[in-house]
Amino acid sequence: xxxxxxxxxxxxxxxxxxxxxxxxxxxxxxxxxxxxxxxxxxxxxxxxxxxxxxxxxxxxxxxxxxxxxxxxxxxxxxxxxxxxxxxxxxxxxxxxxxxxxxxxxxxxxxxxxxxxxxxxxxxxxxxxxxxxxxxxxxxxxxxxxxxxxxxxxxxxxxxxxxxxxxxxxxxxxxxxxxxxxxxxxxxxxxxxxxxxxxxxxxxxxxxxxxxxxxxxxxxxxxxxxxxxxxxxxxxxxxxxxxxxxxxxxxxxxxxxxxxxxxxxxxxxxxxxxxxxxxx
Length: 279
Fold this sequence. Notes:
The chain is α+β, with helices and mostly antiparallel strands. The chain is built from 9 helices and 12 strands.
């Protein structure tokens, strides 16, 4: 699904409107999204001939001509909005992002913009996800059985449960307590029916989950073929951190991210050596 915010506002200082209008509108649109998404921005602009001030050309905001980013930017947390979008655009020379019919024209004004939001399906809670052997048997990852859409709460319960004898198969009581705490934080009345029918948590909702449990949540993904592990969501909260692995919309607990990434690097090196052997 693509959401388009069509904003025809002047954003050029020379025409009397502050660029802050552009950034405020952009941030307002993006911050109201409730699920993970990708975003790009198209610019509308007017060119003027370098030799004839009466010769002008106008270009409407269109991704085919005037995209700000070479590809849509993935937003996986509220912090990404400022870090990946606002700050990046502020550091750009937007005039360099525009198309010119010839070198005989120069930018007169950037006059309008459109915000393109591409909604994604990245909710964590798919109990039916098939976990490949390379992840399932990894000693640095815990895959909880029968999570029933609450794999994120399983990860939180495991991380916060202080016991030397805790068992991944026997933490339902702790999962339920974590869920009750989340309900209280959200102002929702806890019921057993709600607990059983709870929907998966979208990646973008992890911001409020972090505040509820005062826990920074970093999310990683793994390329199964290579074993390569990369961070797709890094918490900017000042809380203690927890690392989870997202695979096929299912969350698994990472016991030691350094060791998991170290194994990933060794697998990559081994594969490289195999492909570069001479026969």
